[in-house]
Write a structure and sequence with these properties.
about 750 residues; alpha/beta; seven-stranded parallel sheet; six-stranded parallel sheet
Amino acid sequence: MSVKVAKIAVSAAVYQIDRPYDYLIPEELADKAVPGVRVYVPFSRGNRRSEGVILALSESSDYKKLKSIISVLDDTPLLSQEQIKLALFMRERFFCTVYDAVKAMLPAGLWFDESGKRRVNDKYIEMARLAISPEDAQIIADNKRRRSPQQANLIEMLCGFECLPSNELLRFTGASRPSLKALCNSEVVELFKKEVYRRPDIIVDEILPLPVLNDEQSQAFNGLSALADSEKAQAALLFGVTGSGKTSVYIHLIRRALDKGKTAMLLVPEIALTPQMIQTFSSHFGDTVAVLHSSLSTGERYDEWKRIKCGKAKLVIGTRSAVFAPLENLGIVIIDEEQEETYKSENTPRYNAIEVAKFRCFKEHCLLLLGSATPDVCSRYKAETGAYSYFALNNRYNEKDLPEVQIVDMKRELRHGNGSNISRYLEDSLRENISRGEQSILFINRRGTHKLISCGDCGYTYKCPRCSVSLTYHSVNDRLMCHYCGYSRKLDSCCPECGGILKHIGAGTQLVEEELHQLFPDTEVLRMDTDTVAPAGSHEELFDKFKNENIPIMVGTQMVTKGLNFENVTLVGVISADQSLYAGDYRAGERTFSLITQVVGRSGRGDKPGRAVIQTFTPENETIVQAAKQDYEDFYISEIQMRKLQNAPPFTDFLAITASGQDEVQVYNTCRFAKQLLENSSVAHELEVFGPTPLAVVKVNNRYRYRINISCKASSEIRSVISQIIIECSGDKRFKGVSVFADNDPMD
């Protein structure tokens, strides 16, 4: 009996009603309607046309009356069986619909607009080639030399090439389009369409040999190779101090996987890190490298996805979403700077790329390698307890010492009359570096000029009318801006409430840049933050400018803290080391240690010794002292003890149910109701429930946000209960207009 029923995930099905729906397969679509293709189906009582993706086929259904598939949208399956299983895993793990998971996996260019047209089409160019042998063509060219010199030039050019783009052929020969058409009509030349890929520009002069490994790297490589050869899922943590050469180990492991006929994936936490990574790996692996990140154009991302799917790309490098790349026969997945929060998505589906990578490695029996100079405390604990294999690179590759670090007490600077953001010690160090022709990087984790503007008389501060935050002042355009919703306004000349004098409080990258110009008026300063990257076009252009033009000072936000390798940088300054210490969540210390350690590690990566200056109002703080010593093990020991006392991860899991809406009371009551359901559930004895509490920024874009936090050992049963609570809250008419969602270990 032939298969007639398709089980379909429908895009119009919200989380409350998300499940595979049964549809009849019309006889004329039987060959095309296979798992992994998208279809149009009638949905709901009004039979509104909706997209769907076929998950599986069946010969029967539990329902007597079934609607039929309207049409099939794809010629071949977009999703493999493994990807369909991944989408189902994401639904259970990350509280999203199956279709949300599918949309995260596929490039935007594959989707359709409201008119039913695909957003990006395949790109083709017209090619020209000889339709006869080169010998016969040369005879014709000689005969046409006098009468039709343009046709003769076209033929002679094609005699030397197998084929050429017709536009280039006409440009090189100076011939006209009618001359080319005439040759086609006489069947001397033929034109055809060739598909081309839109790709980011990657310049590779030559393929370089593999880097030479030192003893420490060789030991790590050999151990990791043994894990990769075990033919079963493995996970390992590679700790390496900044400059220890983790990238060289990655290159050797990837080369080994490719030589075995397998594919490889390398994830980095930020787009800013991809240019140097791509250049490094392309110089070793050439055109087998594909790049996936959000700064690519829609066409480039779509074409890179196609190259991966058809097997032309064997190594994928990208940010979080690259974890969904349709690689087959995976040999290794490497996640660099694995501690970074950017691997966690804050939008639906709220997935963690590391969790997705674990699933893929488990299903494909391959090695997952997490690498960092400051590993996530939970990852280090798993290595300590044996869940992960552990390898360490304790010395820099070039056997140079780690940067010499000086902690500067900014309270003392204030007492000595220095109210700027540049301490005397840092100023002298910068002046010395400039005189030697060496470069410096300054890090402050806030963009803009001032954190807020306040009236010294009445205390008035500028608030965003749509969010519960103060506006940040940007001196470049003399405007106040909300970094959450984008609202901006002009700064008044005096207090709008009482007419008093306005005070500028706090500092950002713009203010530090201005102070540097005052201290060193003849010295060029490059600023690196989201305000400067967009006009420049890309991170790569700014980094290239800093390196190639030997700009003395670069000041920036987190973009300058990780993965950068500039041999002439011998000084790093941390402007406000305290800034992230008091964020109010259990990760604050870890986040601060990681940022300081990573940015200090940008110094002294070449032949010249490096130095670093950490400016702080709490020089005795244990985390700052440990970061100054670059002592991760000491930090880990104290931090894991604190986590145990707090009963925080890795000793428990944190889940959260968040409600948002325009009515604050209604949002709060939704969370209260969800808490009551939890406390009355079958798993209540396994949970600790806290809240409802407002988020740190309670209102964003006119929507209030409250949350209940759940501490537990997250099991499938607990996740199922939370899923039912979301469905019940979303369907309750009392909470109409309130959005409710669940999240694993939320970052905000």
